[in-house]
Structures are given as structure tokens and as C-alpha cells.
Model the fold of this input.
Amino acid sequence: MTPIPLADLITALPAGSTLTGDPATPISAPVVESDADLLPGGVFVARRGLTTDGHTFIGRAIARGAAAIVGERPFVEVAPLPVPYLQVADSTAAVGYLAAGYHRHPSRRLTVIGVTGTDGKTTTSTILHTILQRATGGKTGLISTVSAVIGDETLDTGLHVTTPSAPLIQALLARMVAAGLTHVILEMTSHGLAQGRLNSVDIDIAVLTNLTHEHLDYHGSFDAYRAAKGRMFAMLSIAARKPNMPKIAILNADDANAEYFAAFPADRHLTYALDRPADVRGTDIVHRPGYTQFRAAGDLFHLPLVGVYNVRNALAAITAARALGIDTETLQAGIVNVPVIPGRMERIDDGQAYTALVDFAHTPNALENALRAARDLAGTDGGKVIVIFGSAGLRDRDKRALMARAAIQFADLAIITAEDPRTESLADILATMSAAAEAAGGVEGQTFHRIPDRGAALFYACSRARVGDVVIACGKGHEQSMCFGTIEYAWDDRAALRAAISGLVLSTLPTAEG
Done:
């Protein structure tokens, strides 16, 4: 890549930065937040963290070949330096702008569709990606919490991830431009939005799935959580304009927060819904084995996913695609060809007499939706729903009781188990959830059990399952690890469920309190 003057990166920033040094300094490597990732000729951004201060690593970054340093401290506190120093008010917020400047603002050469919400982001993004791939002749990229897709290449985005880092997002967008792509769907989480990882992404269409209880441990309140999601819609009014592409907000009219998001300015506001009037309304839902049939704005669709909530996800994607002018035939062909989405109501079929599923449902609303879908699969012939789930340590504690109540209400048998306890006591987490299950009418040893070992919990669930039952493992989905203490241990619910079906217990995790 041709070196770019430091001044060009600075112009990407909002006003208020102060440079000490030569603005013509050539930058020949990416902007990074860790000195370990620095390449000679790159820019090191020093951030103040909760436990460490990146400014202490400035010397090490210079030794590694940093061409410039960005930080929050005044120059006199870090001087003398042999390279330019750019002081900014917020280093974390600055990274996205600087990374976009280094890559020459790739999102300005793409039609960018952002998708946010508590649940359904990955599924909605994947459905829309399938439609747009067909409509654009394969020239649509995808960046989700599961993977990044650039043409025929699929890149893993990590173990426990939300939105990728700002430098990675901009690098992926630049690769998409270089590959000749024209569109990209970008899943935007509340953490990614609040931390500025999506700064300088020039968005064109903003899609809301829903908004329910989640991440209050980080955001502090529901209003703050909602405001973080609102940043994506606020981005519409400040994003660069592209030829013949209006700024469009797409909202779930069934969601109680739709009016809040509708207040953000956009050239057009479009709605979708199942229960309320909307621009695109879903009707005539029919559940079939392995797929769901429904109508949207009068057109018939066959979706190879189950559950009413996935119809809502499909409606969000259809509304966005229609806003881009995509015809009904292409929409229908895209919907019917939606692939299996890793860890989203993913079937595990090893010839067992019952249905086994893995789903990422890790919020009260998502768990309820997954269990309602499982109930539809179990049918009316006496099939039971058996759920295995937990609630993560060091995360939103309030949802633990809500998850337990949902399981007691919508499943026939609930098994409460480990789900990333981190440095919290797993026994304490399970005790809290068990107390909530009892308060909701559950009886321990009959309608619910607590089994700390997740492999053993899945094994027990499968041992109880009979013909026509549905066993559903919730909370981990596509993830490939589980955190005990501060260590990530290899774990895959899909592999564990396959082992349980065959009569084995997957034992890659430490003991319950390990």
C-alpha cells in the first residue's frame, strides 16, 4: 500500500486534536491499539484501560518502528519523542477515524447496511447477505459476530466476540473494496457502537431487530443500552452521501422502542411487523418440518429456518432488500436458499429418534423465542421440550432469574448448567437461577435440575429424550470456547451434543468450580 501522510489521517478526526511533529510523516502500516500488533511505519494509539495505561508502552512502540504516536496525555508528559505525537481527547474513539483514514475511507465506496438489536442480528444479517449475494452477483460482503465473508473467503472473527476492533473493521472493508464488492452488511453491537469501533463507517441503511433486556452490566441502565444502539441510527445523518443512495432507517414496528429510533433523522423510515401495521407486514405463517412458510406484503416465501422470531428476522431483511430495489423473484430465491446459520437453531442429526438443536439464545427474550420454536417442532403429540442453558459470569446478573423463569414457563424440563462462569462462583450462579426457577413454579429434581458440568448436562438431557421430544442447548451457539476463571477452554455445544447423543460426555472443561 502506498504510504499516506500523517496529515491525511488527522483530517479524518473530529476537530480538537493537537499535533507535535511533522504532518507530512509517511504512514506505511496500519493503525493499531496494541504495540504487539505494530508493524514498522504504523501508528500506535495509546489508550487508558481499566488495568493498564497504553501510554506506558509508547517507548516499546517506537522501538518496534512506530512512525507516529496517538495518545490522550499532553505532549509534555510523554516527551521527548523521536516521532510525531498527536494528542486527542479520547484515544478509543479516535481509532476508528484514524483507521478509516489510513485505508482511505473504504465504506464510502460501498453501500453499507448496519444491523443492530438485542437478538437476531446475525440471522438477519445472514438472510440479507444471501439475498444481496444473489442480487449483486456475489459482490456483497458480510461482517458478523460469527465470521467475515469476502467473496468466496470466510474469516473467523474470534472466540467470544461482538463487533470486531476498529482497525480490523476498516481493514476488512478495504479488502472488500479491493475485491470489487459493492455492498456490505455489518452487524453492529451495543459494545462496538459505545466504544467507537464503528466510528467513520459511512452507513446507508440502519436496521433494528428488537430491543430487550441485555448488557446492563456494561451500559448501566436500559436507557444507556438503548442510546448505544441509537448511535447507529445517528450515524445515518453524519455519514458521507453516495450517488443515488438515500439514508434509510428500517424499524420493527412490533418493538416497543420503535418510536425512539424513528426520531433519528433519515431520508426514509420503513417498518416491518407481524402484529402491527407496517410497510412490510408478515402474514399467513405456516410451520413445516425444517422450514417456515409466510407471506410478506402479499408475496409468498419459504424460509429454511424455524420459529416466528425468524420470520421477523426475514421481514427485516426483506424490507432492507426492497429499499434497495430488489425484485420479488430475487427476494424469494434468496430467502429459500438461506444457509444453516452456525449455532442458530442448528439441527444435530445423528440418527436419534428426537430432535436436537443448538441455539445462541442467551437473553431472556431469545430463550423464550427459541423455546416457543422448539414447542412448535415438538408438535401436539406429546413431544416434550428439554432445554439446557446457563447464564454468564461477570455479565448482566438481573437476567439470570429472567432466564430461569422463561425456561420453567416454556420448557417441560430445564437443566441449568455452566455458561462462561469466568471468575464468579458457578455454584452461586446456579443457586440464583435455581431459586428463580422454584419461584416460577419449578420443582428441583422434577421439572428442573442443576448440573454444573455442561457436558454431563447435555448427556442427561439426551438420556431423558424420547421419540418426538426436542432437546435444545442454548447460550453458546457457534462459540468455540468457554471461560472458567480467566482461561478459555475449548468447547463446542454442537460437538458436545453429538457426543451426548452417542452416549458420551464431552469432557474438555474443568470441574464445576475448577
About this structure: The CA atoms of residues 304 and 339 lie 8 Å apart.
